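1st attempt posting a full record on here, be nice pls
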Amino acid sequence: MPSPALRVLTDFKRWATPLPVWSGRLHAADWPLTARHIRTQGGRLLAFWGEDRRAEESAYLVHAAFLIATGIVRTEMVVDPATAVYPSLTSIFPNALRMERALYDLLGIRATGTNDTRPWLRHAAWPADRFPLRTDFPGTDLDVAADRGYAFPPTNSPDLHEIPVGPIHAGIIEPGHFRFQVLGEEILRLEERFGYAHKGVERLFRGLDGAAGARLAGRISGDSTVAYTWSYAQAVEQVAAARVPERAQWLRALCLERERLANHLGDLGAIGNDAGLAFALTQFQALKEEFLRENQRYFGHRYLMDRILPGGVAFDLAATDIAALHGAGRALETAIGHLQEILAEHGGLRDRVVQVGVVSPERAAYLGLMGVAGRASGQAWDLRVQFPPSPYDRLQVRMAVAMDGDVAARMAVRFQEISESLRLQEEILRKLPDGHPYHPLDLREAAGEGIGWVEGWRGEVFFWLRMAQGNIRHCRPQDPSWTLWPVLEEAVLRDIVADFPLINKSFNLSYSGHDL
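the predicted structure (as tokens):
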């Protein structure tokens, strides 16, 4: 038994994979009991999804993946189609609420024991009695009027007023609605609503082969294309019991660190701009643009799309490329050092970012905060450190952690991670092993389940899939934004409305990764 948290589990088996995964099926009565045991042991909910298995088992399945000290516990529970209900986990893991609401919208099975049954992803784009992830969903001829009756909580005092923001915004960004309840300028409540960018990704994966699936995985959330395609490739390679060339493993890590660098550069500029320091935006955007041009020059794509495939990577680096990247990395490190000194000495910037948008370490732990935002609130967790995939097990990543949990802390963690990613790039380029970067996989008879798990720049990207005869039967990509967006609602409380864009940008969460 790998952990005391698993004492109530039955018939759980360890997967024969480098990533420690235990998987098994629970009775309905054990579902919340197991979740509570895992929570008591310090675990958290990674992902939550459902599956229509009526053709194979005359039932639906609900899946949950939990993080425990020794790895991942992937649980599933049978749901009778006659009742189509299962016990809610929201009282144990608050981040389960939106996932449970979305599961009803998509599969038509309801969590019991929660008071919030409002739709989450369904904006009346399909009839209320049709569910897109059921195998009998028609998918065509669905003429439904837009949903305009969403029940936001009312204000409970004549002194309060509401400010609706979005879903269409002034900038070129994806849609999302923010409903503020304020007293003067002070934010007393924020409720978000998403689903406007819903793309039907889980259904689009059905029937795809390994190569087509990789292309779609890389387009779930464009700023995290490397994290998604690597986690997808891990899952497919598990199903196929495939070995990836060592050179490909190192090149994948290089891509992941460059994705981290590009996003942190952009975020630091945008945070400075939202704090009124346009200088930061122009300087960091110039550095980011040159960095993206390097990606195009040496890797074949500005944002590294389609660079990672099941079986390896779709590019290679020549000796001259490696030398050029060494020089560019050192120049970028020098430029970042100068900018960090300037920003640290800017009193106006400090006034805007210190003790603004605070998430305490205690609340961060309770809410399951992860990634950059989690590490800025004292959560010493980085998948590259605790469960490092190759080659991170040989790179000894230095985790960046801060305790204050405010915008300033999230900026500080980004600066530290930029420095560390540049160090990792240097080490990867210096130690890059010889050999081929790609080994084609024969997936024609591939069948089974696989899990991928990668520390993207925003947080952990999780990917589960089931394959049969070489094609994807069902999958669940999980963006960290599912857990992070609800934390933003708490981070803005007691701050003023004018600080919301700044706090929001310091998290920089994904709409598209959330609206799968």
